[in-house]
Specification:
heterodimer, A: mainly alpha, about 80% helix, B: alpha/beta, Rossmann fold, Alpha-Beta Plaits, 2 domains, six-stranded mixed beta sheet, four-stranded antiparallel beta sheet, about 25% strand
Chain lengths: ~240, ~300
């Protein structure tokens, strides 16, 4: 697990990583605002967890961390120390993904605490709170894996990732119900919001939570395999 | 017996540029210098040897295995890269120990301690590498490459940026490793450096291996080449006529105020020139060699290798 340890340390020491606490802070901010205004409903939970945390903040955090996890090694030249070790390229990709996912969850922890508080305040039950936390962890891990692979496939992975999050996940996939099967966040929201009752708006995807979990796990595995394959094929600096 | 490091007809190109072309060699224990000017293909050859780049043609083997595919091959290899990058937040010991763990060393902390002692960094082992001078960083990089006791050690321009004392220290270390049976390959564009350290030299020019052998053999090869000397004078034609009679002079080109002389006996030429000038009443304004730089030496070796020497 040396690659994981080294990467976690490097990521958490980066100013760019710490700057991610700003978008993460939006979640506790809106939770607090809703509670203070006294208008917390299941829709509030679906908006804050499904639309803000799972659809925007978690992908953004995972994107920056994943691109940094692999990009810094390539730009700084330290990737040669990994590539000349006995480790397989697949193992390097898997450990990089794990490190980015762990860091994402650490940085998302204020949001997770706020979501837990919101669930308790709303009285949605332990199951729904657990689903919100598990869904966030799964979607963060899946995005970390996908963006590690994208970082190895594309030169401008950060821009490509932001465009993907804002254009596809943030707009097209949310307004076109037929597109939700091709949206990672829709599968994530199926886990986090699927158990909520009493929603006034049509905020929850029609997908089931178990299939959401399976899709996210399979996406993670596929992305790690692609990243490992790409790392094995590419020339390193 | 399988060579420790072997290139067999290896080529690597980037679009239309040939970085390494049809290069073959085998490396055994001892110190081998990889000599070439900037852009000659040294770093690409090193990246190919370390499995960081994939050859477009040919094969690279370490201990008979492909370093890109085989963990056993990479276990035989220690690489000192050209770049100075290190992971954030690590002391010298932490960095070397992390490299030991990556390479599956059984007792990484003890191995790191030993490797740091080998490069005389024990006193600063607990300091953050980010604050190190270039020379100290170079030694940390060497320590990480030695921490798993590799049988093949590859160093990319290890003497770059070091002060004289640090260079002596690294040169002594390379000598010692070579004597201990480690197949040590280091790149340089400085002939004098390579002569001092290497038992054997490979010369790369424009991605091609144009000469190989011991440093004395290479030096002899370079000394037999004709030298080109520019002579500025007020009477070029009479002086040119006199010079053509001198032994060793192969060609004299004349223009309005200077001569370009090709000779394979530059010492005799230098001794005879003032007398010849006086004899024809010519004033010597400047005398300078035009091809003492490495580029011209490599160019000569390239021409010689291609059989197009004039």
């Amino acid at each position: 697990m040396t690659v994981t340890t080294i990467t976690i340390r490097a990521l958490l020491l980066r100013r760019r990583s710490l700057a991610l606490l700003l978008p993460v802070g939006a979640v506790p901010f809106f939770v607090l605002l809703s509670v203070l205004r006294g208008d917390v409903t299941p829709d509030t939970q679906a908006i804050i967890v499904g639309r803000l945390l799972v659809s925007t903040v978690a992908p953004l955090v995972a994107l920056v961390l994943a691109v940094t996890a692999i990009g810094d090694e390539r730009e700084g030249g330290t990737i040669v120390y990994l590539a000349t070790a006995r480790l397989s390229r697949l193992r390097i990709a898997a450990e990089k993904t794990l490190a980015a996912a762990v860091c994402a969850i650490v940085l998302l922890s204020p949001a997770l605490v706020a979501v837990t508080y919101l669930g308790v305040h709303l009285g949605v039950g332990g199951d729904n709170i657990a689903r919100a936390l598990a869904g966030t962890v799964l979607i963060s891990t899946a995005y970390a894996a996908v963006f590690i692979a994208v970082g190895l496939l594309l030169r401008r992975a950060l821009i490509a990732g932001i465009v993907y999050i804002l254009i596809w996940e943030g707009s097209i996939a949310t307004v076109a119900p037929s597109a939700e099967r091709f949206s990672l966040t829709a599968w994530g929201r199926a886990i986090t919001d699927g158990g909520l009752y009493g929603l006034e708006s049509d905020l929850v995807p029609t997908l089931s939570a178990p299939s959401g979990a399976i899709v996210l796990v399979l996406t993670t595995i596929a992305a790690v395999l692609i990243a490992g394959w790409r790392l094995g094929r590419m020339d390193l600096p | 017996m399988t060579p420790l490091l072997e290139f067999d007809r290896v080529s690597k190109w980037y679009r239309d540029t040939v970085a390494v072309g049809d290069v073959s060699f085998a490396i055994e224990p001892g110190v081998t210098g990889l000599l070439g000017h900037n852009g000659a293909g040294k770093s690409t050859a090193i990246r190919l040897a370390a499995g960081l780049a994939r050859p477009d043609e040919g094969t690279v083997r370490i201990g008979g295995r492909d370093p890109r595919r085989s963990g056993e091959a990479r276990a035989l290899l220690g690489l000192v890269p050209d770049g100075d990058g290190v992971w954030s937040g690590l002391t010298a010991r932490g960095f070397v120990e992390a490299c030991a763990r990556l390479r599956g060393v059984a007792q990484p902390r003890a191995a790191a301690t030993e490797a740091l002692a080998t490069v005389d960094l024990t006193d600063v082992a607990e300091r953050d590498v980010k604050g190190f001078s270039q020379g100290m960083r170079q030694r940390v990089k060497i320590a990480q490459a030695l921490v798993h006791r590799p049988r093949v050690l590859i160093l990319d321009e290890p003497l770059n940026g070091l002060d004289p004392q640090q260079r002596e220290s690294v040169i002594a270390l390379l000598h010692r490793l070579g004597a201990e049976g480690v197949a040590t390959v280091f790149s340089s564009h400085v002939l004098g450096e390579v002569e001092r350290v290497a038992d054997r030299v490979l010369v790369l020019v424009n991605g091609r291996l144009v000469a190989e052998g011991s440093p004395p053999a290479l030096r002899a090869l370079m000394e037999e080449r004709p030298r080109r000397i520019r002579v500025e004078t007020d009477r070029p034609r009479p002086l040119a006529a006199a010079l053509t009679e001198l032994e060793g002079v192969q060609r004299v080109e004349v223009d309005a105020s200077s001569l370009l002389v090709a000779t394979n006996r530059p010492d005799e030429f230098a001794l005879a020139l003032p007398t010849l000038a006086r004899n024809v009443a010519a004033e010597l304004r400047a005398v300078e060699p035009t091809d003492e730089d490495l580029e011209s030496i490599y160019a000569y070796l390239t021409e010689r290798a291609r059989g197009v020497r004039r």
